[in-house]
Design brief:
The protein has 18 helices and no strands. By secondary structure, the chain is an all-alpha fold. Helix 6 packs antiparallel against helix 10, helix 11 runs antiparallel to helix 12 and helix 13 packs across helix 14. The longest helix has about 30 residues. The chain starts with 7 loop residues before the first helix and ends with a helix.
């Protein structure tokens, strides 16, 4: 199949090293994105200055920036001040390297004569039906690169969401834009076509429905359209995925706030699912949306039993569900495909599930009132409540060190260095006491 059938061990080693290098870059994104609010500022921060130790501000030497090896050579401590370096840095690098290899192994068939059907994300109506655009080795590797870009964005979003409960636009919006452009230019990076259905379902159900509902069961085969207009079909698939992924989370967000009077899902989850949908399409992204709660419920139980925390970040479980979909496509998709084979009936099922969601949330509110847990007043939002965390954040921002608003007095430098305040104090005071 491939023009250059390189040895498998070489490919695995190369992808692992490449993934670790990308993981080092992702660590920079995880560290800098939360400190900027606007998207452009987040992207500019990546090229603003060299990385340094947050305690002593010493620049990191090039040999210490070698993925995995640099952290191990330093024994997990800063070369200058000996402050411990977070284990998150080698973890992200190792995770990214492993995923580069794992996803390649799942998506790209190995061997010169391996057919496209040997791919782990093969679909009978997939991109291989287009024969007059790109060769198989080109569009399969482009699709793999696009999937890895999405996974890199998911890694950044996951670690930031776990720590700060936010998902910056810098890890989702750029990938969405690249996915839309790539889908139009190559036209063969989708997994399944923008529309498919089993004609037998329409033939069986249509006579049993009222006259007004029979017109809803139209039939359209998107495969000829994809072959004749591959670029427009690729763009349509990506746009439909972004709308479906972001729209379903937005709908749950609106319904949750309307019924529970509190934010059920953050806007970062909306952009996250829009990014995933723009890469994998609207049918797979809806499958991801229904897999994620099954994973998140276990995380919620663990969080409640260990920390008594009633709220968990949802972005990491959306990310994990997306990864599981790609790695278990051959076993998971045939089950989900039976739903989408129903064609227009899928939208009726979606409307029914939306109504069921509203009723379930209303039932939750009734149970909470019965237990004496009163909802927030209608004129008070969650953002207006001043929590203890808000107070600590305000206090620390107003008093970055113990001499704020006072005359400078001599003090042992080690007391500020231990709190990471030495560089800021010298910058404001211009002193070296």
């Amino acid at each position: 199949m491939y023009l250059f059938d390189l040895p498998q061990p070489f490919i695995i080693f190369f992808l692992f090293v490449l993934g670790c290098c990308f993981g080092s870059f992702l660590n920079v994104c995880i560290h800098r994105f939360p400190h900027r609010e606007r998207l452009l500022d987040q992207l500019r921060s990546l090229n603003s200055h060299r990385s340094g130790c947050p305690r002593c501000a010493a620049s990191i030497q090039w040999r210490d920036n070698i993925p995995l090896i640099g952290w191990l050579m330093l024994l997990g401590r800063c070369r200058n001040c000996k402050r411990p370096i977070s284990k998150r840095y080698p973890l992200v690098e190792l995770l990214t390297g492993v995923l580069f290899v794992t996803v390649y192994w799942a998506e790209i068939p190995s061997g010169r004569f391996s057919p496209v059907s040997a791919s782990g994300i093969f679909s009978p109506d997939g991109p291989q039906t287009i024969t007059n655009l790109w060769s198989e080795e080109v569009w399969m590797h482009v699709r793999y690169a696009l999937h890895m870009m999405m996974i890199c964005g998911l890694i950044v979003a996951t670690f930031i969401d776990f720590e700060l409960r936010i998902i910056p636009d810098g890890c989702t919006v750029p990938v969405t834009v690249v996915a839309l452009v790539t889908a139009f230019v190559f036209g063969q990076v989708y997994i399944v076509p923008v529309w498919f259905q089993d004609l037998s379902v329409a033939r069986i159900l249509r006579p049993e429905l009222p006259a007004w509902a029979q017109n809803l069961f139209f039939y359209w085969d998107a495969v000829p359209f994809a072959s004749e207009h591959p670029h427009w079909h690729g763009l349509l698939t990506s746009v439909a995925g972004a709308i479906a992924g972001g729209g379903v989370v937005w709908l749950v967000r609106v319904i949750g706030y309307w019924v529970l009077r509190q934010e059920a899902m953050g806007f970062g989850d909306v952009t996250l699912m829009a990014m995933v949908g723009s890469v994998i399409g609207w049918q797979p992204v809806l499958t991801v949306f229904f897999i994620a709660p099954m994973i998140a419920v276990f995380a919620a139980i663990v969080a409640w039993l260990t920390k008594r925390d009633r709220e968990i970040p949802y972005g990491p479980w959306l990310s994990l569900a997306t990864l599981l979909l790609l790695l278990t496509w051959s076993g998971l998709w045939p089950v989900a495909k039976r739903i989408f084979d129903m064609g227009p009936l899928v939208f009726l099922i979606g409307a029914f599930m939306t109504v069921a969601l509203v009723l379930c949330l209303q039932l939750v509110q009734i149970v909470k009132r019965a237990l004496g847990i009163l909802p927030l007043p209608a004129d008070v939002s969650v953002s207006e409540i001043w929590s203890s965390a808000d107070h600590l954040f305000y206090y620390n921002s107003e008093r970055p060190d113990d001499q704020t608003g006072q005359w400078s007095r001599p003090q042992w430098p080690g007391s500020r260095s231990g709190q990471g305040l030495s560089a800021g104090h010298h910058w404001r005071r211009g002193s070296r006491d």
